[in-house]
Write a structure and sequence with these properties.
The complex is a heterodimer of chains A (290) and B (423). Chain A is an all-alpha fold and 290 residues long. Chain A has 14 helices and no strands. In chain A, helix 13 runs antiparallel to helix 14. Helix content of chain B is 47%, strand content 15%. The chains are: A mainly alpha (290), B alpha/beta (423).
Chain lengths: 290, 423
């Protein structure tokens, strides 16, 4: 028995060492950083660092910009998250449908955006969103609708970012939903059909309940990813116009690397971590109750 | 750490080897459009200095500040770089820049006498010179000369009282809807008014706000008053859909803005506006002064402390500072030259709009040279906006502005006190 435990420890050691070195250590160091006033002066001379306990956290919570950024992030996650999940499920149902043809082709096409570099995607979307020459506005205008300054108008910038994110990310969830759909035994549908259930009721009473665990996984993974919104606004709008696309991670980046207020930025990071943990716990609770 | 040493030793030998062969490579970071355009000037420099090769890297303005700081933190700074002159105090605070005082003293091209004193001063921190002005930027008054002539000021208002009189008459006689456009989210208007009124924003040591002191307080009152009297519309610049069209249609008669708008106004105003607009230096506080005082903006060239090719880097700075080359750079970019002698070029001296800038540049002043300035400047316009929109009274806004500035400067006070105690 002892030898077995030793062998297990031996096998676990490399993974634990890597995790400790590259995950736990940085997290602890980051937390320590958040308790100091590491800033520009400290970059010049390390003696200029002071321990200031939770002062950074208080300062973050008091600053209006943090709440703006958090609000934007929640807007993105609460609108973009469900939208992504819905689109993914729709695509999965379509690809999984008995009548569908060229299934592998569609699966690949829908998955392609996930593995495309975001910067390249952003450049294409910037063309699409161009207020005068972009394909989207041309379509709108030809339909007699007013053109929209997608990335320049404070009201439309976040929706534009959400559209991009949904398009870019739904393929990943679609694959997971597909796997979930394929584990649902055909007998269940047969039984439902014999009981006289139509397509909608089959979906409502067979597909959805059977996908419960898949929903939980997809929901949590999407929420965690979306609450960490960063590259999309970084390459598309840089947080503008009027801070309307400034996300919490974007704020952390600006404070940390633009103004070099590392202590403050670390505090933002840990507060965001708490928000994500809370969002995850909430989803687990919700799922358990059902 | 050991690997780091080994690498430095290798690099040292690597560079030494190159020097022996007579070719030295210097790394130069240019920002935005200037970084692109300067490439056209480099081949000539390399012809004149066969021993030096320039590796030019162009960095977008929006990423420049963090890129330079990260490079410093990671020991990867270039030999020389273009730098917005308001950033210099920050890079001095982290001890990233090389002292250029001896260079300027020995150089035949650069000695400061041909530069505008206010611009030169932005490069001097605690008596040490850290940058050489490359091109300059400031704010002047753009105005509808037809409208201003109709109310008795064909050359534009020269003092604040003339300014108020002009705005009053413009509105009373319905010549324009508003006297002046000053978007509430731009901090330059408040800043230039305060400087014109003799404010230095902070106390002499740069450790406390001086916003409740009379020079700033009165300028702030003047600024807020222009909105409350209805001379200026309460709009931010995102609400201004088309500045040029509104200017041409008589929405407003005056606007405080910078050199890039000379080209934009020429290009975008309808043809019938030709000869009906002009530029003038900012109005003076009173008749005892020739003009108001504007901001000393622009970019400088700096050499990094860690550079191993300081001599070659300084040669490039010298090359780019030659008057004729500054004129060439103006032709390529539209950026205003830093050397007074370059302003004799016909393209600048005979232009109807640039001489106002030339006059203004003699009366520009640096912002407080503290690394926290950008943060403080942001809260200045936020408090200005609060007073303009009547969310607070000017007195409340200024008291809060002083408190905010003192908070931001707390670390600086501590660092300075500590340095003092050590001495």
């Amino acid at each position: 028995m002892k030898a077995e435990a030793r062998a297990a420890a031996l096998f676990l050691a490399p993974a634990l060492a890597v995790l400790g070195l590259f995950f736990f250590l940085p997290v602890v160091a980051g937390f320590a950083l958040s308790l100091t006033d590491f800033d520009l002066y400290a970059l010049g001379d390390l003696h200029n660092v002071r321990f200031i306990a939770l002062h950074n956290y208080a300062a973050v919570l008091k600053s209006g910009i943090f709440w703006t950024a958090l609000g934007n992030t929640l807007y993105f996650a609460l609108v973009g998250g469900p939208l992504t999940v819905a689109v993914s499920l729709g695509a999965a149902l379509l690809v999984n449908a008995k009548a569908a043809r060229f299934k592998p082709l569609f699966r690949t096409v829908y998955f392609a955006p996930v593995v495309t570099t975001l910067v390249a995607v952003a450049i294409v979307f910037r063309f699409l969103y161009h207020p005068r020459f972009g394909a989207i506005n041309r379509t709108l205008v030809s339909l007699g609708l007013p053109a929209i300054d997608w990335l320049g108008d404070p009201r439309w910038a976040m929706p534009a970012i959400i559209l991009l994110a949904v398009w870019k990310n739904f393929g990943y969830n679609m694959i997971i939903f597909l796997a979930g759909l394929q584990t649902i035994p055909d007998e269940l549908y047969e039984a439902a059909r014999i009981d006289g259930a139509g397509v909608w009721r089959q979906f409502r009473h067979v597909t959805l309940p059977m996908l419960g665990p898949t929903f939980l996984f997809v929901g949590i993974v999407t929420a965690i990813g979306y609450l960490q919104l960063f590259p999309e606004p970084y390459v598309m709008t840089y947080g503008g116009p009027l801070n309307k696309t400034l996300s919490a991670v974007m704020l952390m980046y600006q404070e940390g690397f633009r103004w070099w207020r590392m202590g403050y930025a670390a505090a933002v990071a840990f507060l965001l971590c708490l928000v994500i943990a809370a969002a995850t716990a909430l989803q687990m609770r919700f799922q358990e109750r059902r | 750490m050991k690997a780091g040493w080994a690498l430095s030793v290798l690099l040292l030998f690597g560079c030494a080897g190159r020097v022996e062969r007579g070719v030295e490579q210097i790394e130069f970071w240019g920002l935005g459009r200037e970084g692109e355009v300067v490439a056209a000037l480099i081949p000539e420099f390399e012809r004149q200095n066969p021993g030096i090769r320039v590796a030019l890297q162009q960095i977008p303005w929006i990423a420049a500040h963090e890129k330079l700081l990260t490079a410093y933190a990671g020991d990867a700074t270039p030999d020389l770089a273009q730098m917005g002159n308001t950033w210099i105090p920050e890079f001095v605070a982290v001890r990233g820049l090389a002292d250029l005082t001896p260079f300027a003293q020995s150089s035949r091209t650069i000695d400061g006498h041909d530069d505008f004193p206010g611009i030169w001063a932005t490069n001097v921190v605690d008596g040490v010179l850290y940058g050489i002005p490359w091109y300059v930027d400031t704010r002047v008054l753009f105005y509808r000369s037809d409208v201003l002539a109709a109310v008795g000021y064909p050359q534009g208002p020269r003092t604040w009282s003339q300014w108020l009189d002009a705005m009053t008459r413009i509105q009373r006689e319905h010549r324009c809807r508003f006297g002046i456009l000053m978007p509430t989210n731009e901090f330059e208007p408040i800043e230039v008014l305060a400087m014109s009124n003799g404010s230095s924003f902070l106390d002499a040591s740069g450790t406390h706000g001086a916003f409740e002191e009379p020079p700033f307080r009165d300028a702030f009152g003047f600024y807020v008053g222009m909105f409350h009297s209805g001379f200026a519309p309460v709009v931010s610049n995102t609400q201004v859909a088309n500045l040029y069209q509104q200017f041409a249609q008589g929405e407003f008669a005056m606007h405080i803005t910078g050199p890039w708008n000379v080209g934009e106004f020429k290009r975008r105003l309808p043809p019938e506006m030709e000869g009906r607009w002009a530029t003038a230096p900012l109005p003076a506080r009173d008749a005892s002064q020739p003009t108001g005082i504007s901001m000393a903006g622009g970019s400088s060239l700096v050499v990094f402390r860690a550079s191993r090719h300081k001599e070659a880097a300084r040669k490039l700075i010298e090359f780019l500072s030659v008057s004729a080359r500054q004129v060439r750079f103006f032709e390529l970019t539209g950026d205003l030259p830093a050397r007074r002698s370059a302003w004799l070029a016909p393209a600048l001296a005979r232009d109807p709009y640039f001489p106002a800038f030339r006059e203004q540049l003699e009366r520009v002043q640096p912002f407080p040279k503290v690394p926290e300035w950008e943060q403080i400047a942001t809260s200045i316009f936020q408090h200005g906006e609060a007073a303009v929109r009547r969310a607070s009274t000017p007195a409340e806004a200024l008291a809060d502005l002083d408190r905010t500035a003192n908070d931001i400067l707390a670390k600086r006070r501590w660092v300075l006190a500590r340095a003092e105690a050590k001495r």
